[in-house]
Q: What sequence folds into this?
């Protein structure tokens, strides 16, 4: 019986637009942005930021070196937040409904401080609420210093929340992340980026 639902942020709660993020980083002078930015798992300084190996200021300095001119914190945030294409109201309504129905909702995201400046602020939903309003707890890669699909990130969440894998459903648009969670005994659902999962989810939790 499913009691806990673990959500990915980008691609599930938020519809992602990788091409928009690439264009914004290219506009800052990062000519090989398309090679450096991945839809699911970042590498180089991008992965170091999301994996918690460097902080936002170090990322800014390193990006400035890569492009050959000074990049501001605000420019970094604008470029990173280019990943966010849309925040469908149906998703937020579904999250509220699921909590009302008694499910514990957790967010498990490969993300970074620049993205969380928006997601963690009252500007997130246009209604004065941050993402915290919709979840019981947040598990973020840069804070945990772990990234999906590393199985350890799922293990850490399960231990912290004292959950049984068999009582958890994990939603993520990355097949690699879903496969890793499945190996931990967690039930999984892999909707495509931007797909409407709000009705289909009941096939997995009822």
A:
């Amino acid at each position: 019986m499913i009691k806990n639902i673990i959500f990915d942020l980008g691609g599930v709660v938020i519809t992602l637009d990788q091409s928009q993020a690439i264009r914004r980083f290219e506009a800052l002078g990062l000519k090989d942005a398309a090679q450096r930015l991945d839809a699911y798992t970042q590498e180089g300084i991008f992965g170091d930021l999301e994996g918690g190996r460097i902080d936002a200021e170090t990322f800014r300095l390193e990006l400035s070196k890569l492009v050959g001119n000074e990049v501001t914190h605000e420019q970094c945030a604008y470029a990173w937040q280019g990943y966010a294409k849309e925040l469908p109201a149906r998703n937020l309504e579904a999250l509220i409904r699921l909590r009302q129905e008694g499910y514990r909702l957790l967010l498990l995201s490969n993300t970074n401080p620049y993205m969380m400046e928006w997601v963690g602020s009252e500007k997130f939903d246009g209604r004065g609420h941050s993402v915290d309003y919709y979840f019981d707890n947040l598990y973020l890669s840069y804070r945990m210093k772990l990234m999906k699909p590393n199985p350890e990130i799922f293990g850490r969440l399960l231990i912290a929340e004292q959950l049984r894998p068999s009582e958890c459903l994990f939603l993520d648009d990355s097949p690699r992340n879903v496969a890793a969670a499945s190996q931990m005994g967690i039930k999984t659902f892999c909707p495509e980026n931007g797909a409407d999962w709000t009705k289909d989810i009941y096939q997995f939790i009822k």
